[in-house]
User: Fold these one by one.
Assistant:
Number 1:
Amino acid sequence: MMTMSLDFLALPLLTASALVLLSLVAGLFSARLGLSFLLVFLVAGMLLGEDGPGGVLFEDFRLAFWVGNVALAVILLDGGLRTQYATFRTGLRPALLLATVGVVVSAALTGLGAWWLLGWDWRLALLLGAIVGSTDAAAVFSLLQTSGVRLNERVASTLEIESGLNDPMAVFLTLALIGLATAAETPAPAGARAMLLALAQQFGWGLLLGTGLGWVLADGLRWLTRVTRPGGGVRALLLLSAGLAVFALTTWIGGSGFLAVYVFGLVLGNRSRGSIAPALQAMDGYAWMAQAGMFLLLGLLVTPTEALRTLLPALGVAAVLMAVARPVAVWLCLAPLRFPPREIVFIAWVGLRGAVPIVLAVFPLMAGVEGAKTFFNIAFVVVLASLLLQGATLPWAARRTGVALPDRDDPAAVRRVFGDFEVPADTPMAALCQFYGWPTVEDERLTVGEWFRRTCQRPPVEGDQLRWGPAELSVRRVRAGSIERVGIRIEDTDEDGNGTTSTPAR
């Protein structure tokens, strides 16, 4: 009797499932050590590859490109579904600037550094800058979830919205510079017009289809769940298939699928919050599976022995990006919006690079750009350096710059940040000044909440601080954009002029 061997099914499945399982367990422990969860999957893919113990030769860049794009679409959809309109109050304007002007500035300065370090043609150097110029949604979303750090609303919303919106600009710059590097001479005015038209088309179709289809699908989903009452798993599949359809349709007609799927998730999640809430847990699982699969596959593509040949200049490019290009871009975008210096420093440092630069580095390979494999190797080193250095130091940087909020269940930490007592925001500021002997305010009709908002000249968030005479006032509670409670810490001076902090009893 003949029996059919199923080794072709069992062995690959056993290898893949065991690799994912071990990577997940290792990732949980790495997160406790402050390392990026995704770094483990990247390393696991490398170990499975041709230079590792696995010895698997994998060079299907087209498949990796396909998987990377689908995975990013799933991640952006999940991020959009979880982003509430309220966060746009403080994060939209700075995030838009960072996702457009910031990406261009970062790409240009990184390209300048690559031109100097590598001695490349300026077009190829700028192409490398565009590839690594944007932050990565997968890396930012996962680290903010697993770091255990509670950031103030302005910083958290700016980082999340930026990472969800900046992919279209990075893709546009990459494609435009590939065209510049490979095409024959084109008259400058015609080339500039074509680039501007392509940019408008990317953003225009992305916003239009993402918003319109999100609006329509929100009504359809509410009706469908009311009539059929599907479970959370089925709802998640509905969301996933609809989001991927929006991504594919927008990409097919020449728009930015990344922008469309993020905006689609945003509109759908806010217009139909009750209908999608049961599906969010399953969507979280899909997003993590997408991230794990994408990083495993990208790690499998990397040949470490090849990457070592360009290690030093690649580390130089990473240093230029992290220490020069990103900080300059963030400062140019956020300083006019009156962001506190400590928040500018933190946002500049947490410009995490992840799968997006590696996926974008596949573009030159598919387009046949000369020396395209070098782009891939350098992008990989830049991502690895970012995850190891910036990702691992996120909690430390948040505490060091003062953008981390205390745990609400830790009274001692709350007192250290906000002081031992608080007052309602409708308390007259003039009365506080008179009682404590602070400098007088110009308008005696102002409440302490109104004074705070007018003085800081930006939408207030929990944790904002202002100094007035010997006192440090901080926003302790905000609801719907309005300050409700203000914490006060008073610093007295002793006879020798030394500052001593005292906080009166309530």
Number 2:
Amino acid sequence: MFKRSLTPEREPTRSAGREPARSRTMRAARQALHVLAVELGTPTDPGTPLFGAVRNRWLRLLPYLIAFLFAVSLLPSGIHVLVADYGMNGALAGALATAQTAPLLLAVTRPLQAWWVIFAADVICALALTGTDGVAGRAWPWPPTVIVGYLVLMLALSLRERRRTLIAVWLMTGAAGILSEPITPEPIAPEHTISTWVLLFVLSGVMLMMGATLRERGDAQRKLLEQETISEAERARRTLLEERTRIARELHDVVAHHMSVITVQADSAPYRINGIPQEAQEEFGAIAATARESLSEMRRLLGVLRSEETERHHEGPEKAPQPGIGQLPKLVEGTVRAGVPVELALPEEPVALEPAVDLSAYRIVQEALANVVRHAPGAQTRVSVTATADGSQLTVLVVNSAPPAPSAPLEPDGTGHGLIGMRERVRLVDGSLDTGPLPDGGFRVAARLPLASPASPSISRPAPPATPTAAPSPSPAPPLSEKDSDST
């Protein structure tokens, strides 16, 4: 009873287990065939020539030249081999040889479509050779000329198509060779232990792998170059933003001084001036309140610009008074101690400068001397600060000669971002900056700054009447060199 009841229960279970396995196998086979058809029917960038993105014109023409040479050489040789060696009809041999070689010209722009034509022609040629008399003792199913043309096509195909497409092409090549075994002509069956389909299958795989490796390596180098270009642009942008932030922090002290003066003058006016009407006192109070509010807004803006690390590590220097051309002798003294001989020439008479102009002149000289220390150590350097004859502009000139022969740059691989800060400071005060090399191998940096900044006129003295701003210099300085340096 127990065995009779057990047997009918197990048999349906086994048959049910076999049925899903067969269905899964069929489903997997259908999916594989679908993927194979999609990969073989979806070319990558059709119509785009190989090496089309290369700038060199001769390299762009190289694939056309190679395809033309192989097509011209393989066409007559293929016809001769099929007619003379295999005994094929001349018209049929010419048609097959043309179909096997002419698409090599198409492979430059559409290698996958060229493969379909050549592969079909090769299969038809193998079938046609089974009916010829000269096939005995010779290569079959792929004659030598067919193998050479097919390998050239594999190279073009590997330089363009995806890896999955290349695998599909390789498998189709092997499948065609395997299917040719049952129809191998009897006379050559005992004479050939290794058919030519195995040779073509192996060589085509090697060619596909080699071409795909070269293509992937070129793609990786191109992406790396693009990434380096993007990184360099991001570094330049970040340097510019950091320099603007630094300028904004420094200008905070300059503007805060004037706003503080306005506040004090407005608050003390009723006590310093007798007989001020009540309306005027209220107006002075409103001016003082507006000045205090402006100071608060400016401090909040400065807090946004200053990062936590800058706040922590540079809190002391940012609260110190901002330097000007009066501190240039001390700056030059430090540069001389660094091993750079520097001569300094300042105006004999004191020049009244706006704080922003004074600070910009100092920072330009500071950066120029830093460039000399980095890239031309030991070079004779001259720094001059002069005012134009009409008293409208301040000219800051830094000239260094060629460095001594034994000396080597301390930073030979500078990023070239050092002039970003100079340009920003010059543009801040509506000035100009010129750079250029000297014939003797030295460098010059010249900046022309207006003595009265049009962007921020002095508040501590009455504003002058509306007149044209600083006139252009009658004798502009020659172009100066752009040193390859980092921003300070």
